[in-house]
Fold:
Amino acid sequence: MSNVEQPRPGEVELKVGFPGHYETRKFQVPEGDAPPWDANTKFTVVGSDEPRVDGVMKASGRAKYSYDVTFKGILYGMILRSPVARGKLTGLELDEARSMPGVAAVLALKELGNKVRFVGDEIAAVAAPTLDQCRDAIEKIRATYESEAHNVDFLSAEDGPLVDDSGEYTEPWAEDSGMEKALAESKVQLTGTYRTEVQTHSSLETHGAVAKWNGADLELWASTQATFGVRGEIAQAMQAAKVKCDSVTLHAEFVGGGFGSKFSGGAETRAVALLAHATQTPVKLMLDRFEEHTCTGNRPASLMHIRAGLSADGILTAWDWRSFGGCGHNGGGGGVAMPNHFLNTAKKRTTHKDIATDTDPARPMRAPGHPQGFFGAELFLDELAAKAGIDPLELRRKNDQQPIRQAQYTLGSETFGWQAGRNPKPGSPMPGDDARYLRGVGMATARWGTLGSHGGRTPHAALCRIHQDGGVETRNGAQDIGVGNKTMMAILTAEELGIPVANVKAVMGHTSDPSGPASGGSTTTPSIAPAVRLAAYQAKLELGKLAAKHLDISEDKITWAGGKIGADGKWLTFAEACKLIGPNPIEARGQRFPNYKGEPIENGVCGVQFAEVLVDTWTGLVKVTRMLALQDCGVVIAKKTAESQVLGAMIQGISYALYEQRLMDKRSGRMLNGDFLRYKVIGSIDMPPMQAILQTVFNGHSNTSAAGLGEPPSVAAPAAIANAVFNAIGVAVRHLPITPDKVLRALNQRGGN
Amino acid sequence: MKPFTYILPRSLPEAATAAARKGAQLKAAGIDLIDRMKERIETPSEVVNLLSLKGELSYIKSERDSGLRIGALTTLNDLELDAALGAAQFGALREAAGRTATPLVRNRATIVGNLLQVTRCWYLRSAAFGCLHGKKGPACLAMTGENRYHSVMGYFDCVRVHPSNLAPALLALDAEFTSQLGDRQSRRKLSELFPKEARAMLAEHTLLPGEIVTAIHVPAQPANARSAYRESREKLSFDWATTACAARIVVEGGKIRTATLVLGAVAPVPMPMPEAAKLLIGEAPSDELFQKVANAAYQSAVPLSQNVYKVQVGKAVVRETLHAITR
Structure:
């Protein structure tokens, strides 16, 4: 970084865009913000290959997750869960459990007469010195239920979609003469039904918390993706104990994944707070893997029925879509997102209906609705392209007006080798391949939209401290759920102060620090990055004042260059300048201002992914053999962790496309594969060589132009893989996951195997 | 799990005495047992940890007749990497060991532990269900329930599958086992380790209470024998086989002279297929022949509501195994 410019509130011109597409646009920068970066900014560490700041701690086991927190004399908590899928609690005898050896507390979580809504619904909680004593006590609780008929399959629900033996949705379309006309006038038409199954979040660290009361104050270590939200939730839940937010401190310094399932503390966090209060002893309650699979939400199932028409020149002219979400007992959260960006002039109609079943409710999961909706829509597009005799990439180029994705189509097809990779005769082996194996490539697009926010009613903020020994802290109370936010904070601070990243300590996850967002919607980085940068900038100004006084030059002349501070031949190193600080550190707060008024290049991020598969026609096994992602995330701050996010999303996308599905016992309503033996998650041998190309886009909406990245790369992967399978075998497998049985059915249907 | 007395025997006779006590349960690596104890579907009062005899029971020895004697506590990793198993005749055993689970499991899991696993049927292995095989219910729940990974043949009143992937390989190699019951030792055909009729009420194996398998014998194989093991899965990393096949073949003068063929993961017990293997005898190896044999191997298959695919996949695995041997 060069000169310290004074903030220039008001209208500024910024060079925005991305390589090959730069332009100058005007934005309103609020008073008090740091001068915004743009495409002219020369960076030292932003966008470089700095390693994850807590990587060694994590790899060596020194990072302490909530699961690892313990205290002398700690008790364990466990929850009794309903074995019936639907009904009412009619009896609850806790006394025998209370008298069991070691049992410190037994609490009812439901009252008699309360509804029981799924297998796993929480009934009571116990605390005891060991998990085995908890289990013994749980077995002595006598709970009785009045059970009702249940249903755990949304296709069997009374209001569920009716499908025939081939899996096609059979209801006639609602009348719409405009749609019928648009379809009739199109040159090529297609209709199809697409389905996806329930996917569980499968975070490595299960839900739960450790609770410890210090007098009237509660300290919680929780595996959460919303430190402030959960603090408020627990304070509210403990109102009877006269608890308010100011007496609850929550820590989530390391979190083993969340993927959308950890916004609420849930029954487990409320239970552990209550158990610790009742026993006045620290209590740990972390769910086991079965509970994690069955009681902490999921990506719901879906069914999509699509028909569309294509004009003679390959433009989508009609798009008729109806979808269903296969949800939990609350009948919500099953929304399916459709790629709107191909439907510019098409006559369009969409309807959606969520169907309730007697299971654990859906929770947001990494790009809610998108992997399922893009799978249906983009596989449909490839089938439509095949029917029209058009290259599927060409079909997308023609119908997509987004310049960032257009650039990604070009770069992606060149880098991946689209033309050479396509199977010219789907269903036949590629030249040089063993006749047993069919190869194919596919691609799909992604969009995800937000550029973060200032926090709504109350703005987010970050803290930067510079100490006299040269140590620098950057702090925010939101959580890093594993994605790399701390690395991002350290890099931004190092960039602003002109010091090595290793000299910055980034701390997150304590509600005693300035507020930050819940980790949802890929908004954490775009929301807090501008505040982090501003805090560092403000701290820098303070340090500049001390330096100016010491060097006897005027403050406005102070320049920062090559790690030195000063002007006119009078220079201090950063360390020398820090010595001017007294025992109290420089402490500067950076506020997150609202996104700038003005038109950003894109109000979200764009992506395209390519996949190649090899299908074993004998056994039906699909192997992904290589993948490429092109992803925009605004300005790339921490390149390694950003790439890691994209690669992780591709891995999770393969897993969703090929392996993962919740399997239920319909009679009992209980999940059968609630473990990692039968709930199949991708392993290392199943992972192909993968490449992630990040595109820096200066959107111009904040002082850092950072956009979100957690969710967008998970949107395209399953669709790209399904399209590759279609290109390989010549038949679309319209139902995820693409397991061997489905591949063989498709091949048998094609015949000639 | 429930509290239990943990016994570390100092000798095989001591282990045998301990194992004979009521409520005692033998443990090798514990990979299967500990899961069942945690789920509380197994609540032994005593656990006899055979690993304290590892020095005595972990070995791979070449016998004078070029057969192998393998100690019961030999790990799968040892089987995969031992030079004695490098010969083409033992390919099936080496491959089966090398494909099991994950490297972490293979470093610990033992040959006999693998053979004596309890079925992975999701109804049996959950304390929430009571089924006939677990002796806690009146019927097989998978028969009419969720059965995509269950049996397609050889079942009666229980459609569990036998989970061992070493069993088909060892059966194809005509293996035998030595066991200790009290102070008596006996050596029998490995096929006698599994029930002849896989009824729900029978265990996965035929051992008597307190009986300890101490060694597996892989006899000298016919001259020029080659063997192979293949399995189908839903993913390549840690997964249970959906079907498996092991075979041993001798080809001389371009014709197959002897053949054994055993299927795994398709029935409550490993399934030797002598009739299908017989079709190979006297024939020259060819894809057409192998497909014919695969069809014969699955001729008796009666798949359940959700596992029809296993028949097609299983035939492919037979075909692939035979190709792998004769390639």
Summary: Residues 108 and 188 of chain B are 26 Å apart (CA to CA). The interface with chain A takes residues 1-3, 40, 102, 120, 122-123, 126, 128-129, 141, 145-146, 148-149, 232-240, 242, 308-309, 312-313, 316-317, 319-320 of chain B (CB under 8 Å). The first helix of chain B runs from residue 12 to 19.
